[in-house]
Amino acid sequence: MSQPTGPGQYGAQPPYQGAPPNNYLVWAILATVLCCLPLGVPAIVFSSQVNSKWAAGDAAGALEASNKAKQFSIWAAIAGIVVVVGYLIFLFALGGLALLQAGQS
């Protein structure tokens, strides 16, 4: 008696080998919460697509989603850093302006 070998059946062999690509879900969530929400949301969406595409046999799609999740996570982190640095410069400029105003009175 032979085993069924259709898709999703016992004994079926997937058309791809190895482990799925990294989905960067942790980095996407951290970038969304801590850095930049508008760029973090697409990172989460793409990272959630990696494992489902891999399970469906779409290795190229899983790799593409993984790369996009990584890119959006990096962009979100960079945007967050730029905003924080700009805010700190703004605060120091206001502090210096306040010192100048206090010195003139």
UniProtKB/TrEMBL annotation:
TM helices/strands, residue ranges: 24-46, 74-100
GO terms for cellular component: membrane
This protein's UniProt keywords: Membrane, Transmembrane, Transmembrane helix
Subcellular localization: Membrane
Domain of life: Bacteria
Keyword Membrane: yes
Pfam families: CD225
Alphabetized PANTHER family for the sequence: DUF4190 DOMAIN-CONTAINING PROTEIN, NG5
Protein name: Interferon-induced transmembrane protein
Organism of derivation: Propionicimonas paludicola
